[in-house]
Amino acid sequence: MKFFIDTANLEQIKEANDMGVLDGVTTNPSLMAKEGVKGEENCRAHYLAICNIVNGDVSAEVIATDYEGMIREGEALAALHPNIVVKVPCTADGIKAIKYFSGKQIRTNCTLVFSPGQALLAAKAGAAYVSPFVGRLDDISSDGVELVEKIVDMYTFYGFTTQVLAASIRHTQHIIQCLEAGADVATCPLGAIKGLLKHPLTDSGLATFLADHQRVNS
Ligand code: G3P
Asked: Nearest residue CA, atom 9 of ligand 1?
């Protein structure tokens, strides 16, 4: 399983990258707005800054919702850096654009996916990644992890190569559950990744090791 961090915050990306386990980054218009990044030039500079921190795929989302606009924006984003993956919403124009991009060897991440049917269309269009939003389904009493399982099973059965990128991860347990469901990638908040480290028995065990060493060697 690959770990991506789901943020446009450069400090958090640096911290996650310095942990030595980061494989990529996902952003979206809300995450970019949260960092106050506005205007095409600033957005492109920000994506490049992220690419210069992490040696891995970086998802950059188109703003246009029409096919022609998606193509125009996506080609410009893809030209920024080899690691840029064009993020496209799962709409009729989005699926059409993904098909176009796959024909041009431009890798895409089909986002805002909430059903197996949407994931099927993303794979048939040739998306490199599909992003089922686990947390947002859980938020409305649906089962986000179950969606990941269904997509993994469908892709495995039909031999689709689209990678399942579990998104909208809310906490550390979501990461474990998506791993168990067979997701190829989990894109997570920094806290959820750091939460994987935490266990009281590790802390108490280390304290005992050090105390025993100190007792004999002091
Ligand atoms: O990559 C998609 C992710 O950012 C959405 O997360 O927490 O807004 O549902 P959230």
From this structure: 168
